[in-house]
């Protein structure tokens, strides 16, 4: 699965899409900022590739200056669902 962030409108927050496989949309949500996106992904029980390897979360926040704003995410087997 891949989490992609894109601006809703200037100064109006972000849309996050969760894509799987060949671009199949698995979910979306809106947030005020990328920090909130990172928190919401964790709350929904997702891990980034880095987290799965017991490293720091590969946060969308850190990618804000990149042209592409996305990070692979995985279901967290230890998350309460």
Q: Which keywords apply here?
A:
81 residues, alpha+beta, 2 helices, 5 strands, 37% strand, globular
Produce a short descriptive summary.
With 81 residues, this protein is an alpha+beta fold.
Report on this structure.
By secondary structure, the chain is of the alpha+beta class. It has one domain. 17% of the residues lie in helices and 37% in strands. A five-stranded antiparallel beta sheet has the order 3-2-1-5-4. The radius of gyration is 12 Å and the shape is globular.
Q: Helices and strands: which structural class? A: alpha+beta
> Counting H and I runs of at least 4 residues, what is the number of helices?
2
Poorly predicted regions are: none
Number of strands: 5
What shape does the CA trace take?
Answer: globular
Helix content: 10-25%
* Overall tally of structural domains: 1
N to C succession of SSEs: EEEHEHE
How would you characterize the largest beta sheet?
A: 5 strands, antiparallel
Radius of gyration: 12 Å
Distance between the termini: 17 Å
Main sheet strand line-up: 3-2-1-5-4
- How much strand content do the residues show? 35-45%
Could you report the average pLDDT, rounded to the nearest whole number? 73
